[in-house]
Amino acid sequence: MNGAVDPRRRVPRTDVLLADPRLAAAEATLGRARLKAVLVAAQERVRRGEIRPEEVVPATLAALPETAAGLRPVLNATGVVLHTNLGRAPLSAAAVAAVVAAAGHTDVELDLRTGRRARRGRGALAALAAAAPAAGAVHVVNNGAAALALVATALTAGRRQHGEAAGGGPAGREIVVSRGELVEIGDGFRLPDLLASTGATLREVGTTNRTALADYAAAVGPDTAFVLKVHPSNFVVRGFTAAVPVEELATLGVPVVVDIGSGLLAPDPLLPEEPDAASALRAGAALVTASGDKLLGGPQAGLLLGDADLVELLRRHPLARALRVDKLTLAALEATLTGPETPTWRALRATPAALRLRTERLRDQLAADGRKAEVVAADAVVGGGGAPEVTLDSCALALPEEYAEPLRLGDPPVLGRLERGRLLLDLRCVPVERDEAVRAAISRVPRSRRES
Ligand SMILES: *Cc1c(COP(=O)(O)O)cnc(C)c1O
Protein backbone atom coordinates (compact mmCIF):
# COMPACT_ATOMS: atom_id res chain seq x y z
CA MET A 1 0.00 0.00 0.00
CA ASN A 2 2.90 2.27 0.85
CA GLY A 3 4.26 1.97 -2.68
CA ALA A 4 1.11 3.54 -4.05
CA VAL A 5 1.53 6.76 -2.11
CA ASP A 6 2.60 9.73 -4.18
CA PRO A 7 6.13 10.64 -2.98
CA ARG A 8 4.95 14.26 -2.75
CA ARG A 9 2.65 13.16 0.05
CA ARG A 10 5.57 11.60 1.93
CA VAL A 11 7.27 14.85 2.88
CA PRO A 12 9.33 14.06 5.99
CA ARG A 13 8.09 15.78 9.11
CA THR A 14 10.02 18.78 10.36
CA ASP A 15 10.53 17.46 13.91
CA VAL A 16 11.88 14.17 12.58
CA LEU A 17 14.26 16.01 10.25
CA LEU A 18 15.50 18.35 12.97
CA ALA A 19 16.47 15.30 15.05
CA ASP A 20 18.75 14.05 12.25
CA PRO A 21 22.32 14.31 13.64
CA ARG A 22 23.61 16.01 10.47
CA LEU A 23 21.01 18.74 10.75
CA ALA A 24 21.46 18.96 14.51
CA ALA A 25 25.13 19.78 13.86
CA ALA A 26 24.08 22.50 11.41
CA GLU A 27 21.64 23.87 13.98
CA ALA A 28 24.49 24.16 16.48
CA THR A 29 26.46 26.44 14.14
CA LEU A 30 23.68 28.29 12.33
CA GLY A 31 20.74 28.41 14.71
CA ARG A 32 17.29 26.86 14.41
CA ALA A 33 15.55 29.69 12.54
CA ARG A 34 18.10 29.70 9.74
CA LEU A 35 18.09 25.91 9.47
CA LYS A 36 14.31 25.73 9.46
CA ALA A 37 13.96 28.25 6.66
CA VAL A 38 16.24 26.17 4.44
CA LEU A 39 14.59 22.94 5.55
CA VAL A 40 11.10 24.18 4.74
CA ALA A 41 12.29 25.16 1.26
CA ALA A 42 13.64 21.62 0.74
CA GLN A 43 10.34 20.09 1.94
CA GLU A 44 8.56 22.34 -0.54
CA ARG A 45 10.75 20.90 -3.31
CA VAL A 46 9.54 17.40 -2.38
CA ARG A 47 5.94 18.61 -2.63
CA ARG A 48 6.66 19.97 -6.07
CA GLY A 49 8.19 16.62 -7.04
CA GLU A 50 11.63 18.14 -7.67
CA ILE A 51 13.47 15.93 -5.18
CA ARG A 52 12.70 12.67 -3.43
CA PRO A 53 11.82 12.61 0.27
CA GLU A 54 15.13 10.98 1.21
CA GLU A 55 16.95 13.87 -0.48
CA VAL A 56 15.65 16.50 1.92
CA VAL A 57 18.60 16.26 4.33
CA PRO A 58 21.36 16.35 1.67
CA ALA A 59 19.55 19.16 -0.18
CA THR A 60 19.23 21.15 3.03
CA LEU A 61 22.90 20.66 3.91
CA ALA A 62 23.92 21.74 0.40
CA ALA A 63 21.83 24.91 0.62
CA LEU A 64 23.07 25.96 4.07
CA PRO A 65 25.71 28.65 4.38
CA GLU A 66 29.00 27.69 6.05
CA THR A 67 28.72 30.24 8.85
CA ALA A 68 25.97 32.17 10.57
CA ALA A 69 27.33 35.46 9.24
CA GLY A 70 26.66 36.41 5.64
CA LEU A 71 30.20 37.73 5.20
CA ARG A 72 32.03 35.39 2.85
CA PRO A 73 35.78 34.98 2.67
CA VAL A 74 37.06 35.94 -0.79
CA LEU A 75 40.39 35.68 -2.57
CA ASN A 76 41.71 39.12 -3.39
CA ALA A 77 43.47 38.87 -6.73
CA THR A 78 42.76 42.51 -7.59
CA GLY A 79 46.28 43.71 -6.89
CA VAL A 80 44.83 46.31 -4.50
CA VAL A 81 46.45 45.58 -1.15
CA LEU A 82 44.01 47.49 1.07
CA HIS A 83 40.75 47.05 -0.80
CA THR A 84 38.00 48.99 0.98
CA ASN A 85 35.22 46.84 -0.51
CA LEU A 86 37.03 43.71 0.62
CA GLY A 87 37.47 44.86 4.22
CA ARG A 88 40.87 46.59 3.98
CA ALA A 89 43.60 44.77 5.93
CA PRO A 90 43.25 41.00 6.42
CA LEU A 91 44.25 39.90 9.92
CA SER A 92 47.38 37.84 10.49
CA ALA A 93 47.01 34.27 11.73
CA ALA A 94 48.29 35.53 15.09
CA ALA A 95 45.57 38.19 15.24
CA VAL A 96 42.88 35.69 14.25
CA ALA A 97 44.03 33.34 17.00
CA ALA A 98 43.94 36.22 19.50
CA VAL A 99 40.40 37.13 18.41
CA VAL A 100 39.23 33.55 18.83
CA ALA A 101 40.87 33.34 22.27
CA ALA A 102 39.23 36.61 23.37
CA ALA A 103 35.80 35.73 22.00
CA GLY A 104 34.57 34.11 25.18
CA HIS A 105 34.93 35.46 28.69
CA THR A 106 38.29 37.14 28.98
CA ASP A 107 40.26 39.25 31.47
CA VAL A 108 39.89 42.40 29.36
CA GLU A 109 39.13 44.55 32.41
CA LEU A 110 40.31 42.34 35.26
CA ASP A 111 43.69 41.81 36.89
CA LEU A 112 43.75 38.09 37.59
CA ARG A 113 46.54 38.49 40.17
CA THR A 114 44.61 40.86 42.43
CA GLY A 115 41.09 39.99 41.36
CA ARG A 116 40.45 43.70 40.87
CA ARG A 117 39.36 45.79 37.97
CA ALA A 118 42.20 46.70 35.59
CA ARG A 119 42.55 49.11 32.69
CA ARG A 120 40.59 47.84 29.73
CA GLY A 121 42.79 46.61 26.91
CA ARG A 122 46.02 47.34 28.77
CA GLY A 123 47.88 44.75 26.68
CA ALA A 124 46.93 46.39 23.39
CA LEU A 125 47.65 49.87 24.76
CA ALA A 126 51.06 48.77 26.06
CA ALA A 127 51.87 47.20 22.69
CA LEU A 128 50.85 50.39 20.89
CA ALA A 129 52.85 52.56 23.29
CA ALA A 130 55.91 50.32 22.76
CA ALA A 131 55.48 50.54 18.99
CA ALA A 132 55.18 54.36 19.17
CA PRO A 133 57.82 55.41 21.74
CA ALA A 134 57.57 59.06 20.66
CA ALA A 135 54.03 59.23 22.08
CA GLY A 136 53.54 60.24 25.70
CA ALA A 137 50.33 58.22 25.85
CA VAL A 138 48.02 56.29 23.54
CA HIS A 139 44.33 55.53 23.22
CA VAL A 140 42.28 53.41 20.84
CA VAL A 141 38.79 54.08 19.48
CA ASN A 142 36.54 52.55 16.85
CA ASN A 143 38.16 53.91 13.68
CA GLY A 144 40.07 56.84 12.25
CA ALA A 145 36.94 58.93 11.87
CA ALA A 146 36.04 58.29 15.52
CA ALA A 147 39.52 59.37 16.60
CA LEU A 148 39.08 62.68 14.77
CA ALA A 149 35.55 63.17 16.10
CA LEU A 150 36.77 62.61 19.65
CA VAL A 151 39.64 65.04 19.26
CA ALA A 152 37.39 67.68 17.69
CA THR A 153 34.75 67.24 20.38
CA ALA A 154 36.99 67.07 23.43
CA LEU A 155 39.48 69.76 22.45
CA THR A 156 36.85 72.33 21.51
CA ALA A 157 34.60 71.57 24.50
CA GLY A 158 36.01 74.06 27.01
CA ARG A 159 34.40 77.23 25.64
CA ARG A 160 31.09 75.67 24.78
CA GLN A 161 30.55 74.10 28.17
CA HIS A 162 31.98 76.59 30.57
CA GLY A 163 32.07 79.91 28.79
CA GLU A 164 35.81 79.81 29.02
CA ALA A 165 38.74 77.46 28.92
CA ALA A 166 38.25 74.29 30.92
CA GLY A 167 41.07 73.29 33.20
CA GLY A 168 43.98 71.76 31.31
CA GLY A 169 42.31 71.71 27.91
CA PRO A 170 42.94 74.12 25.08
CA ALA A 171 40.95 77.33 25.02
CA GLY A 172 38.86 77.83 21.90
CA ARG A 173 36.30 76.12 19.74
CA GLU A 174 37.87 76.70 16.36
CA ILE A 175 39.85 74.21 14.35
CA VAL A 176 42.28 75.85 11.95
CA VAL A 177 42.79 73.76 8.81
CA SER A 178 44.16 74.29 5.32
CA ARG A 179 41.71 74.42 2.39
CA GLY A 180 44.01 71.96 0.64
CA GLU A 181 43.28 69.33 3.28
CA LEU A 182 39.48 69.34 3.47
CA VAL A 183 39.24 65.93 1.92
CA GLU A 184 36.60 63.40 1.05
CA ILE A 185 37.84 59.97 2.12
CA GLY A 186 35.36 57.92 0.08
CA ASP A 187 31.71 56.85 -0.08
CA GLY A 188 30.69 60.47 0.42
CA PHE A 189 32.50 60.73 3.75
CA ARG A 190 33.89 64.25 4.04
CA LEU A 191 36.23 65.24 6.79
CA PRO A 192 34.96 68.83 7.14
CA ASP A 193 31.41 67.51 7.64
CA LEU A 194 32.61 65.15 10.35
CA LEU A 195 34.45 67.95 12.17
CA ALA A 196 31.49 70.36 11.87
CA SER A 197 29.13 67.67 13.19
CA THR A 198 30.93 67.84 16.54
CA GLY A 199 29.90 71.47 16.92
CA ALA A 200 33.40 72.77 16.28
CA THR A 201 33.94 75.69 13.93
CA LEU A 202 36.28 75.18 11.01
CA ARG A 203 38.55 78.07 10.28
CA GLU A 204 39.77 77.42 6.75
CA VAL A 205 43.06 78.95 5.71
CA GLY A 206 45.07 79.16 2.49
CA THR A 207 43.92 77.88 -0.87
CA THR A 208 43.44 74.48 -2.47
CA ASN A 209 46.98 74.36 -3.76
CA ARG A 210 48.95 76.65 -1.47
CA THR A 211 48.90 77.34 2.24
CA ALA A 212 51.69 79.20 4.05
CA LEU A 213 52.65 79.45 7.71
CA ALA A 214 51.50 83.09 7.63
CA ASP A 215 47.98 81.91 6.68
CA TYR A 216 47.83 79.78 9.79
CA ALA A 217 49.43 82.48 11.96
CA ALA A 218 46.81 85.03 10.87
CA ALA A 219 43.98 82.68 11.84
CA VAL A 220 45.32 81.40 15.15
CA GLY A 221 44.00 83.32 18.15
CA PRO A 222 42.21 82.98 21.47
CA ASP A 223 39.41 80.98 19.80
CA THR A 224 41.75 78.36 18.40
CA ALA A 225 41.45 74.88 19.91
CA PHE A 226 44.04 73.34 17.62
CA VAL A 227 45.57 73.36 14.19
CA LEU A 228 44.66 70.27 12.18
CA LYS A 229 46.90 68.82 9.50
CA VAL A 230 45.28 66.13 7.39
CA HIS A 231 47.16 63.81 5.09
CA PRO A 232 45.26 63.97 1.78
CA SER A 233 45.74 60.21 1.45
CA ASN A 234 43.87 59.48 -1.72
CA PHE A 235 44.99 62.24 -4.07
CA VAL A 236 47.92 64.53 -4.79
CA VAL A 237 48.05 68.15 -5.81
CA ARG A 238 50.89 68.76 -8.23
CA GLY A 239 52.47 71.85 -9.71
CA PHE A 240 52.31 75.22 -7.98
CA THR A 241 51.78 73.92 -4.46
CA ALA A 242 52.87 74.68 -0.92
CA ALA A 243 52.03 73.12 2.42
CA VAL A 244 53.41 73.77 5.88
CA PRO A 245 55.35 70.98 7.60
CA VAL A 246 54.46 69.95 11.15
CA GLU A 247 57.74 71.45 12.50
CA GLU A 248 56.59 74.92 11.46
CA LEU A 249 52.98 74.48 12.57
CA ALA A 250 54.34 73.50 15.98
CA THR A 251 55.73 77.02 16.41
CA LEU A 252 52.25 78.60 16.40
CA GLY A 253 51.68 78.12 20.14
CA VAL A 254 48.56 75.92 19.85
CA PRO A 255 48.32 72.13 19.74
CA VAL A 256 48.89 70.60 16.31
CA VAL A 257 46.82 67.51 15.53
CA VAL A 258 47.99 65.42 12.59
CA ASP A 259 45.65 62.95 10.89
CA ILE A 260 48.14 60.70 9.10
CA GLY A 261 45.39 58.34 7.92
CA SER A 262 47.22 55.14 7.15
CA GLY A 263 48.57 54.08 10.54
CA LEU A 264 52.21 53.85 9.53
CA LEU A 265 53.92 54.10 12.94
CA ALA A 266 57.48 54.69 11.68
CA PRO A 267 58.91 55.69 8.30
CA ASP A 268 59.21 52.91 5.74
CA PRO A 269 61.48 53.12 2.68
CA LEU A 270 58.88 51.28 0.58
CA LEU A 271 56.48 54.22 0.97
CA PRO A 272 58.71 57.28 1.31
CA GLU A 273 55.89 59.80 0.81
CA GLU A 274 53.60 58.27 3.41
CA PRO A 275 53.53 60.25 6.69
CA ASP A 276 54.19 58.27 9.87
CA ALA A 277 53.32 58.78 13.52
CA ALA A 278 56.88 58.85 14.89
CA SER A 279 58.01 61.60 12.51
CA ALA A 280 54.89 63.70 13.16
CA LEU A 281 55.32 63.43 16.93
CA ARG A 282 59.03 64.19 16.79
CA ALA A 283 58.23 67.21 14.61
CA GLY A 284 56.04 68.55 17.41
CA ALA A 285 52.54 67.19 16.82
CA ALA A 286 50.53 67.19 20.05
CA LEU A 287 48.34 64.37 18.77
CA VAL A 288 48.38 61.96 15.86
CA THR A 289 45.28 60.11 14.65
CA ALA A 290 45.33 57.07 12.35
CA SER A 291 43.45 53.97 11.24
CA GLY A 292 44.24 50.46 12.46
CA ASP A 293 43.19 48.60 9.32
CA LYS A 294 45.24 50.41 6.70
CA LEU A 295 49.05 50.22 6.68
CA LEU A 296 49.19 49.00 10.27
CA GLY A 297 47.59 45.85 8.87
CA GLY A 298 45.33 45.25 11.86
CA PRO A 299 41.66 45.42 12.81
CA GLN A 300 39.43 48.45 12.22
CA ALA A 301 40.45 50.89 14.94
CA GLY A 302 41.33 54.52 15.46
CA LEU A 303 44.70 55.20 17.01
CA LEU A 304 45.33 58.28 19.13
CA LEU A 305 48.96 58.98 20.01
CA GLY A 306 50.61 61.95 21.65
CA ASP A 307 50.73 64.34 24.57
CA ALA A 308 49.86 62.50 27.80
CA ASP A 309 47.57 65.25 29.18
CA LEU A 310 45.64 65.56 25.94
CA VAL A 311 45.26 61.80 25.58
CA GLU A 312 43.96 61.68 29.16
CA LEU A 313 41.47 64.45 28.33
CA LEU A 314 40.25 62.36 25.37
CA ARG A 315 40.09 59.17 27.38
CA ARG A 316 37.95 60.81 30.08
CA HIS A 317 35.56 62.55 27.69
CA PRO A 318 32.04 61.05 27.79
CA LEU A 319 32.13 60.48 24.04
CA ALA A 320 35.12 58.15 24.50
CA ARG A 321 32.74 55.55 25.93
CA ALA A 322 30.58 55.66 22.81
CA LEU A 323 33.65 55.13 20.64
CA ARG A 324 35.11 52.37 22.79
CA VAL A 325 36.51 49.31 21.02
CA ASP A 326 35.47 45.76 21.56
CA LYS A 327 37.64 43.11 23.24
CA LEU A 328 38.01 41.40 19.86
CA THR A 329 39.53 44.54 18.39
CA LEU A 330 41.87 44.92 21.35
CA ALA A 331 42.99 41.31 20.98
CA ALA A 332 43.59 41.65 17.23
CA LEU A 333 45.38 44.96 17.63
CA GLU A 334 47.76 43.66 20.27
CA ALA A 335 48.58 40.54 18.22
CA THR A 336 49.10 42.69 15.12
CA LEU A 337 51.51 44.98 16.97
CA THR A 338 53.49 42.24 18.69
CA GLY A 339 53.13 39.37 16.22
CA PRO A 340 54.74 38.36 12.93
CA GLU A 341 54.70 40.39 9.70
CA THR A 342 51.12 41.14 8.71
CA PRO A 343 49.53 39.87 5.48
CA THR A 344 49.37 43.53 4.39
CA TRP A 345 53.13 43.95 4.60
CA ARG A 346 53.80 40.53 3.15
CA ALA A 347 51.72 41.62 0.15
CA LEU A 348 53.43 45.00 -0.04
CA ARG A 349 56.90 43.44 0.11
CA ALA A 350 56.26 40.54 -2.30
CA THR A 351 58.92 40.76 -5.02
CA PRO A 352 58.03 40.82 -8.72
CA ALA A 353 60.30 37.79 -9.25
CA ALA A 354 58.49 35.70 -6.63
CA LEU A 355 55.11 36.78 -7.97
CA ARG A 356 56.13 35.89 -11.52
CA LEU A 357 57.19 32.42 -10.41
CA ARG A 358 53.84 31.80 -8.72
CA THR A 359 51.91 33.17 -11.69
CA GLU A 360 53.88 31.08 -14.20
CA ARG A 361 53.26 27.97 -12.14
CA LEU A 362 49.56 28.77 -12.18
CA ARG A 363 49.65 29.31 -15.94
CA ASP A 364 51.46 25.99 -16.50
CA GLN A 365 49.02 24.06 -14.31
CA LEU A 366 46.13 25.58 -16.25
CA ALA A 367 47.83 24.75 -19.56
CA ALA A 368 48.03 21.11 -18.47
CA ASP A 369 44.28 21.37 -17.95
CA GLY A 370 43.88 22.72 -21.48
CA ARG A 371 43.29 26.34 -20.50
CA LYS A 372 45.21 29.13 -22.11
CA ALA A 373 46.28 32.00 -19.87
CA GLU A 374 49.05 34.52 -20.23
CA VAL A 375 51.46 35.95 -17.67
CA VAL A 376 51.66 39.73 -17.99
CA ALA A 377 53.35 42.56 -16.14
CA ALA A 378 50.92 44.51 -13.95
CA ASP A 379 50.80 47.36 -11.49
CA ALA A 380 49.52 46.71 -8.00
CA VAL A 381 48.52 49.56 -5.69
CA VAL A 382 48.38 50.14 -1.94
CA GLY A 383 44.69 51.17 -1.94
CA GLY A 384 42.57 52.00 1.07
CA GLY A 385 43.05 55.66 0.26
CA GLY A 386 46.80 55.34 0.83
CA ALA A 387 49.89 56.15 -1.23
CA PRO A 388 47.98 57.11 -4.40
CA GLU A 389 51.20 57.73 -6.30
CA VAL A 390 52.84 54.42 -5.52
CA THR A 391 52.59 51.51 -7.93
CA LEU A 392 54.10 48.17 -7.02
CA ASP A 393 55.68 46.23 -9.90
CA SER A 394 53.58 43.14 -10.07
CA CYS A 395 52.54 40.33 -12.31
CA ALA A 396 49.16 38.95 -13.34
CA LEU A 397 47.52 36.01 -15.00
CA ALA A 398 45.45 37.30 -17.93
CA LEU A 399 42.26 35.39 -18.76
CA PRO A 400 39.34 36.17 -21.08
CA GLU A 401 37.04 38.63 -19.31
CA GLU A 402 34.23 36.04 -19.39
CA TYR A 403 35.97 34.44 -16.41
CA ALA A 404 35.28 37.43 -14.16
CA GLU A 405 31.68 36.64 -13.25
CA PRO A 406 31.92 32.88 -12.65
CA LEU A 407 35.03 33.43 -10.54
CA ARG A 408 33.28 36.15 -8.54
CA LEU A 409 30.24 33.92 -8.02
CA GLY A 410 32.31 30.81 -7.27
CA ASP A 411 33.21 29.25 -3.95
CA PRO A 412 35.45 30.76 -2.76
CA PRO A 413 34.83 33.91 -4.80
CA VAL A 414 37.96 35.07 -6.63
CA LEU A 415 38.15 38.80 -7.40
CA GLY A 416 40.39 40.10 -10.13
CA ARG A 417 40.33 43.30 -12.14
CA LEU A 418 39.26 43.99 -15.69
CA GLU A 419 41.71 45.74 -17.91
CA ARG A 420 41.35 46.28 -21.63
CA GLY A 421 38.95 43.42 -22.15
CA ARG A 422 40.85 40.91 -20.03
CA LEU A 423 40.57 39.65 -16.50
CA LEU A 424 43.83 40.11 -14.60
CA LEU A 425 44.50 37.99 -11.52
CA ASP A 426 47.35 39.37 -9.39
CA LEU A 427 48.58 36.94 -6.73
CA ARG A 428 50.23 39.66 -4.62
CA CYS A 429 47.43 39.71 -2.03
CA VAL A 430 46.65 36.00 -2.26
CA PRO A 431 48.39 34.02 0.50
CA VAL A 432 50.77 31.63 -1.29
CA GLU A 433 49.05 28.62 0.27
CA ARG A 434 45.85 29.70 -1.53
CA ASP A 435 47.34 29.61 -5.04
CA GLU A 436 45.93 26.12 -5.43
CA ALA A 437 42.45 27.43 -4.52
CA VAL A 438 42.78 30.03 -7.29
CA ARG A 439 43.79 27.34 -9.77
CA ALA A 440 40.91 25.10 -8.74
CA ALA A 441 38.44 28.00 -9.03
CA ILE A 442 39.62 28.76 -12.57
CA SER A 443 39.42 25.07 -13.51
CA ARG A 444 35.80 24.96 -12.37
CA VAL A 445 34.73 27.71 -14.77
CA PRO A 446 32.89 26.14 -17.71
CA ARG A 447 34.92 26.59 -20.85
CA SER A 448 33.54 29.18 -23.22
CA ARG A 449 33.01 28.40 -26.88
CA ARG A 450 35.77 30.82 -27.75
CA GLU A 451 38.28 28.78 -25.76
CA SER A 452 37.53 25.27 -26.97
C1 LIG B 1 41.14 56.63 6.09
C2 LIG B 1 41.27 57.98 6.62
C3 LIG B 1 40.37 58.48 7.59
C4 LIG B 1 39.22 57.66 8.09
O1 LIG B 1 39.67 56.56 8.82
P1 LIG B 1 38.66 55.34 9.10
O2 LIG B 1 39.50 54.39 9.91
O3 LIG B 1 38.28 54.81 7.77
O4 LIG B 1 37.52 55.88 9.85
C5 LIG B 1 40.56 59.75 8.07
N1 LIG B 1 41.56 60.52 7.61
C6 LIG B 1 42.45 60.09 6.69
C7 LIG B 1 43.54 61.00 6.24
C8 LIG B 1 42.33 58.81 6.16
O5 LIG B 1 43.20 58.37 5.23
From TrEMBL:
Its main location: cytoplasm. It is found in: Cytoplasm. It catalyses: L-seryl-tRNA(Sec) + selenophosphate + H(+) = L-selenocysteinyl-tRNA(Sec) + phosphate. The keyword Protein biosynthesis applies. Gene3D superfamilies: 3.90.1150.180, Type I PLP-dependent aspartate aminotransferase-like (Major domain) (3.40.640.10). GO terms for molecular function: transferase activity. Pfam families: Se-cys_synth_N, SelA. It comes from the Bacteria. The modification N6-(pyridoxal phosphate)lysine is found at K294. Residues 8-47 form the L-seryl-tRNA selenium transferase N-terminal domain. Pathway: Aminoacyl-tRNA biosynthesis; selenocysteinyl-tRNA(Sec) biosynthesis; selenocysteinyl-tRNA(Sec) from L-seryl-tRNA(Sec) (bacterial route): step 1/1. Keywords: Cytoplasm, Protein biosynthesis, Pyridoxal phosphate, Selenium, Transferase. Its cofactor is pyridoxal 5'-phosphate. Its EC number is 2.9.1.1. Converts seryl-tRNA(Sec) to selenocysteinyl-tRNA(Sec) required for selenoprotein biosynthesis. Belongs to the SelA family. This is L-seryl-tRNA(Sec) selenium transferase. It comes from Plantactinospora mayteni. The gene is selA.
